[in-house]
Predict the 3D structure of the following.
Amino acid sequence: MAKTCPVLHKTSKVGGGYSNRTRATQFNPTGMVRKYPNLQKKRIYVPELKKTLTLTLSTRAWKTIAKNGAHSVLKKAGVI
């Protein structure tokens, strides 16, 4: 499973582990942390296609689909 949302193109990010106060007082390297998007696998029915699709999308993409409709969002993203 790819860790990318095909609608919003959300991928992982690398974040640091320091606050400026820690940097000023002592050196204790914590390393970089990779943070992944909140991807959910769900089934959605598209009435225009008369099909049920199983998609792995971010939760923000699900909210966009709920607001604008499945067919228009997925067509604009190039999924269908």
The two ends are 19 Å apart (CA to CA).
